[in-house]
Write a structure and sequence with these properties.
Number of strands: 10
Largest sheet: 3 strands, antiparallel
Radius of gyration: 14 Å
Helix content: 10-25%
Order of helices and strands: EEEEHEEEEEEH
Oligomer: single chain
CATH architecture: Beta Complex
CATH topology: Beta-clip-like
CATH class: Mainly Beta
Number of domains: 1
Low-confidence stretches: none
Distance between the termini: 34 Å
Mean pLDDT: 91
Number of helices: 2
Length: 131
């Protein structure tokens, strides 16, 4: 697993983003999405952009700034993917392909999140933003 100093938060086209300061191979565990584990009912009451649903019963509230993975932006052509552990209690961000130091980390947030939070404003990922 990576250390905190393996990443840099930076200003991106979508606000803030997260860059890796080291290389990763395809399949490597890049970072864990951390935060308070709360019930789905509590998550529905709190709302917010940093909620990561684990299953029908529990959600991670990743609002804490200690959660560097919260800065990973959505992409329609991501270099990472989110995976639950076998107990559905933890979320790990893994490399979908080789990632070089200096690259922004991205993953697909999923249809529901994209429809609720991104689509109304337009996607600003590298694939969707004309250069």
């Amino acid at each position: 697993m990576s250390a905190k100093n393996d990443f840099k938060v930076f200003r991106s086209s979508a606000g803030l983003g997260l860059r890796t300061l080291r290389d990763f191979k395809k399949g490597d565990e890049v970072i864990e999405y951390i935060g308070e584990k709360i019930t789905s009912d509590e998550a529905n009451q709190r709302g917010g952009k940093y909620l990561f649903e684990l299953n029908d019963d529990y959600t991670i509230d990743g609002t804490t700034r200690k959660n560097l993975a919260r800065y990973i932006n959505h992409s329609c052509r991501p270099n990472c993917e989110a995976e639950l552990d076998e107990d559905e209690l933890r979320v790990f961000i893994k490399a979908r392909r080789a990632i070089k130091a200096g690259e922004e980390l991205t993953y697909d947030y999923g249809k529901e999140y994209v429809n609720d939070y991104i689509k109304p404003y337009g996607c600003r990922c590298a694939k969707c933003t004309p250069k």
